[in-house]
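Journal club side-thread
Mid-discussion, someone asked how the predicted structure for our own chain would compare to the paper's figures. Pasting it here so we can look after the session.
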Amino acid sequence: MLGRIYNPVVSINGESMTRKHCSGSCHCGGVRYEATLDLSKGTVRCNCSLCKKARAWFTFVGGKDFRLLQGEDSLSSYQWTPNGKPGPFLTYRFCKTCGVRIYATGDAEFMGGRFYALAVSTLDDVTTDELAAAPLKFIDNLHDRFDRAPEDTRLL
């Protein structure tokens, strides 16, 4: 699947997906959240140096659609400023105990303001079928080309 965006039909058993209230957590359970998301909008894999190393896979929700339930004191943060940028775009949050990266957060007008990039692997009550049916979009953030997939997506 080189240089293509994969957009399967978004349905499960013939029904379209809609917004779903779900919960998520880290591996040790010290951090828990809830979010309302719409997987029909898709999930994202990115090729920037950080996402590539972490094999990141995200789905995005607006700020009002996310609520941390437990574990603020168990979270640590990481910010990274890409070369040539004035500052970090995202703050990555991960559990200090088990090391799982749970989400990243940012604030950008083109994203509708405050948003959360939830690590798909932390969603506790989203089925494999739901994830497989969601459109998967690859973005070339390594070259600041958010509108297209990178030439090679095999390791993303």
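Post-session note: The chain is about 10% helix and 35% strand.
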